[in-house]
Design a protein that fits this description.
Oligomer: single chain
Distance between the termini: 69 Å
Strand content: 5-15%
Helix content: 55-70%
Strand order of the largest sheet: 1-3-2
Shape: elongated
Largest sheet: 3 strands, antiparallel
Structural class: mainly alpha
Number of helices: 8
Order of helices and strands: HHHEHHEEHHH
Length: about 130
């Protein structure tokens, strides 16, 4: 931990002049900040899931799924979920395939046969449109 965080909040000159309630609040904030700093030293920066989704170019729902299955590390701090920088970087380095995984298609309400038929009909319509042009 850096020397700055080893300093007690009471050692800052401006704290001595604060009313007692404000000193207590400042001390609580300082303790939470030290906790956040130590988490960041171990795991890298903590980011909200929406930021991880932007950085990874995936949906927020996908980030939630990745946190649930352990591919992105979730840290709860102050009652809110965060994703670790290290896990986002590690995930970004992996080669990922675009599109829905086959397992997800088969778990949907439609059967694989119905989904295949709809896909074939859509392709057929596109071919007919292009042929008429």
């Amino acid at each position: 931990m850096s020397a700055m965080f080893e300093v007690a909040i009471n050692e800052f000159p401006f704290v001595a002049e604060m009313p007692r309630a404000e000193k207590r609040e400042a001390k609580g904030m300082w303790e939470r900040y030290k906790e956040l700093s130590s988490l960041a030293q171990v795991h890298g920066m903590l980011m909200p899931p929406w930021m991880a989704s932007k950085l990874l170019d995936v949906s927020q729902q996908r980030v939630s799924e990745l946190m649930a299955d352990g591919r992105l590390q979730r840290i709860e701090w102050e009652g809110r979920p965060f994703v670790t920088e290290n896990s986002v970087v590690d995930y970004a380095k992996t080669e990922r395939k675009a599109g829905r995984p086959v397992g997800r298609l088969l778990e949907s309400k439609e059967s694989a046969t119905v989904a295949s038929a709809k896909f074939a009909i859509g392709v057929g319509r596109e071919l007919l449109k292009n042929r008429r042009k």
